[in-house]
Design goal:
This protein is of the alpha/beta class and about 325 residues long. It contains ten helices and nine strands. The longest helix is centred in the C-terminal third of the chain and has 26 residues.
């Protein structure tokens, strides 16, 4: 795709192409592209699109052809990033951005109508440094509706005004460019998910003002059924690592206990949400029992993941000290 520079864009929309490597590809990406194309046409302020992909694993020409089918705007760039993954691709997109604002959208989420306008408009307020949108599990079937009650991404939020917050999801967030450059996404390999904790703590300490807009919504698919157990185990392992190496830097045993308590609290909150919010979230009465079972299973797997994480960081036993070899015997000589 030939990049034709336009007038300096007001915003840069950065989209990673790492998620499709894990099976979340096909129709979901086409829905995302169609939604982005339509919303950029409707937004009067100029913007640019930046796609990042691992050139060692993704066919750049095939990706170019896919994007061309849905987006005809000339201010589109495809940037190969050999060997770079999710957060690294986002940081690369920030470095290539030209807009005053940098938006981050994932390749496996679909923005609701009006998403872009709400995000752009929020920055008319000089008090806003970061705008976090709401990502929810798209309720396409009973499994998805149940996961919306117990998983990382909740059920669809009700309308409401913006409010101050400290946390955000990397798949639906926007920064003033100078803030994005000052606080890049963590590029580390010891977490499967949940790498944003150090970043959000640093931002809060520096006084960065994060606002949550519950109406800037994106739809996320539920985890693949075949990946349910592994995703939960990794989630629990990350919870342990957060307590052990980052937030509190607790000793291994204390961190494991803190993680298990946190997981138990999360599980209890999930069960409470099912009891109190199942109707408002769109869950059918016949699906309540399934949601409870999935919630119990997910958090039990999380607890197992925390225990596995603690076991994996156990201090290795010191190697036994080798015994000194006996001194060689003094050779006997015959002086006769």
């Amino acid at each position: 795709m030939t990049f034709i520079p336009q007038a300096t864009p007001y915003y840069s929309l950065v989209i990673e192409w790492d998620n499709p490597l894990f099976g979340n590809e096909g129709v979901q990406q086409e829905r995302m592209l169609a939604a982005v194309a339509e919303q950029m046409r409707d937004e009067p302020r100029p913007g640019e699109l930046i796609f990042l992909y691992d050139s060692l694993k993704v066919d750049g020409q095939a990706l170019d052809d896919l994007i061309r089918r849905w987006i005809a705007q000339p201010s589109v760039r495809l940037i190969p990033t050999a060997g770079k993954r999710y957060y690294s691709q986002k940081n690369e997109g920030t470095r290539h951005s030209r807009g005053e604002l940098v938006f981050f959208l994932d390749s496996d989420v679909v923005p609701e109508p009006g998403w872009l306008t709400r995000i752009v408009g929020a920055f008319d307020d000089s008090e806003v440094d970061v705008v976090a949108g709401m990502t929810y599990v798209e309720p396409v079937d009973p499994y998805a509706r149940c996961m919306g009650m117990i998983w990382i991404f909740p059920a669809r939020s009700p309308d409401g005004p913006r409010y101050r917050d400290r946390r955000f999801w990397a798949n639906n967030v926007a920064f003033r460019r100078e803030v994005a450059l000052r606080f890049p996404f963590p590029e580390r390999s010891d977490h499967y998910r949940g790498k944003l904790a150090p970043m959000t703590h640093a931002m809060a300490k520096a006084g960065v003002r994060v606002w949550r807009d519950p109406q800037a919504r994106t739809m996320h698919p539920p985890p693949e059924r075949k990946d349910f157990v592994e995703r939960a185990i990794q989630h629990g392992r990350d919870r342990f690592i957060t307590h052990h190496r980052e937030r509190k830097r607790l000793p291994r045993a204390a961190a494991c206990l803190a993680a298990l308590r946190s997981i138990a609290a999360s599980g209890a909150n999930a069960q409470r949400r099912i009891t109190q919010e199942w109707q408002a979230s769109g869950l059918q009465k016949s699906e309540v029992a399934l949601a409870r079972r999935l919630g119990f299973a997910y958090h039990a797997c999380m607890a197992w993941g925390a225990l596995r994480g603690a076991a994996a960081t156990a201090s290795p036993r010191p190697a036994p000290t080798p015994r000194p070899l006996p001194a060689p015997a003094t050779p006997v000589t015959d002086d006769r």
